[in-house]
Specification:
Helix content: 25-40%
Bound molecules: 6-O-phosphono-beta-D-glucopyranose
Structural class: alpha/beta
Distance between the termini: 15 Å
Strand order of the largest sheet: 1-2-3-4-5-7-10-11
Strand content: 5-15%
Number of helices: 15
């Protein structure tokens, strides 16, 4: 058996992309609630308040808020042993800086965790998945303000205390390295100059480390993961200039692993800040917190790989070139399909940091067709996931990598994060809703639902068929 006996199998979602009920039971407005819908392939924009003439897909999403029992029953039918989800910060602290948490928000997640445990499904909870209370933008200018450290820590402490015994797998910030490239959902910042980004990154890393310390103190059973966006890139050519450009791009991603796994800033980062005349606002205790609050495992997302080429040679606006690898096919949304790349990067991550890995996002965003009889034949999704699982298996079997589990992204169709579309579906479970918000939200099983159920019940054996 190449998948270990206790391998965690499941799926993943984020609150803002599935819950809806955006103002129910005392929830405040989050950064995700002001992200508009966009058309195919276009990255969606945010407003800074809710405008009456714009469509905001997260406001209803797939209304999991009211369907969670039905949805969890479907996850259980597939045999999930883990479900990755996020708590929406603005449900617990509607403004982010409130003194006391919102009991109705806390009770809602109690209901979810109890329902999961009813079926023996372990919750894996992301504390912040691009859902920052919007008030933190208006009142503090977002995460570049050190005040946000304490707000996040208070929120984390509330979760860790309240759900002690119900949740033992935690992730702090989803895809923390997206801050490097400016990420509204996380930072609640509209100014993305290098100094503000560096400060926001420091504040978030410090907050995450403090949350990790609290998690370990609250319950020694707690396991806290860092969560890295799989922005994995190859040099575009064997030109040393491209290799250097790629190293620099990858260093920016691994910086977050360096801090969250080793507890220290790498020297090159200080050199870079000195060159750019960036002076961070830090306190000596930040560095003690970073040192003590290292993570227990590395979780990451993996959808595609990138190519990087040197700017000077090719006069590109950015070093990163996506989707042009001649050796790889692409999805309808222009993502390269690179299962072997998953093995390559898992090996790299494991060699560098020697922490167990968990793939907490992977999957194929595709436009599914519902046949007249209601069936959905998504063989392309089965192929995609099978090919990635085969590489995960090789990384364990041949590269000695320790892997805790696999949660396929958007195990039920949800709103796309980058485009706001419903059409870009990842799920094993179809949800009747379109890009404009039409549909009766009923759930149905795709072919991949039955296939994934067999994957789990055979502990991965059927991927060889
Ligand atoms: C990850 C995010 O970057 O990619 C998810 O953590 C997101 O929130 C996922 O949904 C897939 O991206 P998209 O744009 O296809 O939804």
């Amino acid at each position: 058996m190449s998948f270990p006996k206790n391998f965690l199998w499941g799926g993943a979602t984020a609150a803002n992309q599935c819950e809806g009920a955006w103002l129910e039971d005392g929830k405040g407005i989050s950064t995700a609630d002001v992200l508009c819908g966009a058309s195919h392939g276009r990255r969606r924009e945010n407003t800074i308040e809710v405008l009456s003439d714009r469509y905001y897909p997260s406001h209803e999403a797939i209304d999991m808020y009211h369907h969670y029992k039905e949805d969890i029953a479907l996850f259980a039918e597939m045999g999930f042993t883990v479900y990755r989800m996020s708590v929406n910060w603005a449900r617990i602290y509607p403004n982010g800086d409130d003194e006391y948490p919102n009991e109705a928000g806390l009770a809602y997640y109690d209901g979810i965790f109890d329902e999961l445990h009813k079926y023996g499904i372990e919750p894996l909870v992301t504390m912040a998945h691009f859902e920052t209370p919007l008030h933190l933008y208006h009142a503090y200018g977002g995460f570049k303000n050190r005040a946000c450290i304490a707000f996040f820590v208070r929120y984390a402490r509330t979760l860790l205390t309240r759900y002690k015994g119900k949740v033992k797998y935690w992730l702090t910030f989803n895809e923390i390295n997206t801050v490097e490239h400016g990420c509204w959902g996380h930072t609640a910042m509209t100014d993305n100059d290098p100094a503000s980004v560096a400060q926001a990154a420091h504040n978030m890393l410090t907050a995450a480390a403090e949350a990790t310390i609290i998690a370990h103190e609250t319950d020694p059973e707690n396991k806290v993961g860092m969560m890295l966006a799989g922005l994995f890139s190859y040099p575009a050519t064997c030109n040393p200039k491209d290799i250097q450009a790629n190293n620099e791009f990858m260093d920016k991603q691994f910086f977050y692993c360096d801090v969250q796994c080793r507890g220290v800033y790498p020297k090159w980062r200080w050199q870079e800040y000195a060159r750019k005349k960036i002076v961070l606002d830090t306190k000596p205790e930040d560095f003690e917190i970073l040192k003590k609050g290292t993570c227990d495992f590395i979780s990451f997302s993996y959808y595609l790989t990138f190519l990087t080429e040197d700017q000077e040679d090719h006069s590109k606006k950015t070093d990163l070139v996506s989707g042009s690898n001649p050796y790889l096919p692409k999805t309808d949304w222009d993502y390269t399909i690179d299962p072997m790349g998953l093995r390559i990067w898992m090996r790299e991550l494991y060699r560098m940091y020697e922490k167990p890995l968990m793939i907490v996002e992977n999957g194929l965003g595709a436009a599914d067709v519902v046949e007249e009889d209601g069936s959905i034949h998504d063989q392309y999704r089965i192929d995609y996931i099978r090919d990635h699982l085969l590489e995960i298996e090789k990384s364990m079997e041949r590269d000695g990598v320790e892997v805790l589990g696999y949660t396929s992204w958007g195990c039920i169709d949800i709103v796309s994060n980058t485009t706001g579309e419903m059409k870009k579906r990842y799920g094993f479970i179809y949800v009747d809703k379109d890009n404009e918000g039409n549909g009766d939200l009923h759930r149905s099983r795709k072919d991949s639902f039955f296939w994934y159920k067999n994957v789990i019940s055979s502990n991965g054996e059927i991927i060889h068929q």
